[in-house]
Amino acid sequence: PWSVGSAGIARWSEDDVWYNAVVDSVDQASGDIQVTFTDYGNTAIVKSDNIVSTAQDIPTDQIHMVDECVEMSATKSSPSDAAQNQVVQKNETEVTISKNSSDAKTRSPSCCPHTVGETVVARWSEDKVWYNAVIDSIDDASSQAHVTFIDYGNSATVSVNKIVATANDIPADELEMVDECVQLPICLPLTSAPLASIKEEDPVLPLG
User: Fold this and answer.
1) Per residue in 9-37, pLDDT tens?
2) For the chain: N or C, fewer Cβ within 10 A?
3) What are the phi and psi torsion angles at 125 (to 5°)?
4) What 3-state DSSP class applies to 165?
5) What is the C-alpha to C-alpha distance for residues 146 and 118, in angstroms, rounded to an integer?
6) pTM here?
7) Among 18, 75, 81, which Cα is nearest to 50's?
8) CB burial class (10 A; 0-12, 13-18, 19+) of residue 114?
């Protein structure tokens, strides 16, 4: 059974390609699993039969549909080394034309675009709220980072896909879960609860 934070390889239904992923949530009733594709940052809902622990568990008839960032085991059975090279070349083409994120064309296989010491905005898993933070360390293997929430002093380990450079990068559907200390862009709707808090501190913001 999958649990929140588990790393695996999931097949994206949009292009049927297998990508590195981490489990965000599990719906026990339906068996659906929400994952974040760690090399690209987007999320999706996948069925339990479309997520595996390692590349060795991917069905053999779908090996040609594996993203280039997925580490293929050297011991994996294949007809020949030439065939394996063909798989990699095919994947390089597919990730360029099929992934809907423009980052897919330019981002390197490195999972984390952030650096140690960088000031960011991170989402704490305990309350799902975004806080100002500084990155203490990064574990590329698990796609997680250790951060300190600078306005409160506590530390936590968060998934790198729950870290953004600025408040502008916070998903629109999560703007109501932003700490009052985070400086939100002034162009956001005034109905946003976090922005209302900022208005009280900075009365020069436009009111309409």
Assistant:
1) 999 988 999 999 999 999 988 889 999 99
2) C
3) -70, -20
4) coil
5) 12
6) 0.39
7) 18
8) middle
Element (H, E) at 24: strand 17-26
Query: Using CA atoms, how far apart are residues 208 and 193, in angstroms rounded to an integer?
Result: 15
Integer angstrom CA distances of residue 167 from 7, 81, 109, 122: 26, 46, 25, 10
- Contact at 8 Å (CB) between 165 and 130? no
Instruction: Identify how many contiguous H helices and E strands the chain contains and give both numbers.
Output: 3, 10
By three-state DSSP, how is residue 48 classified?
helix
Q: Render pLDDT for 75-126 as a digit per residue (tens, 0 to 9).
A: 444 444 444 444 444 444 444 334 444 443 333 344 567 888 999 999 998 8
Contact call for residues 46 and 32 (beta carbons, < 8 A):
yes
Instruction: Report which residue type is found at 131.
Output: Y
Residue type, 9: I
- Round to whole Å and give the CA distance between 203 and 191: 16
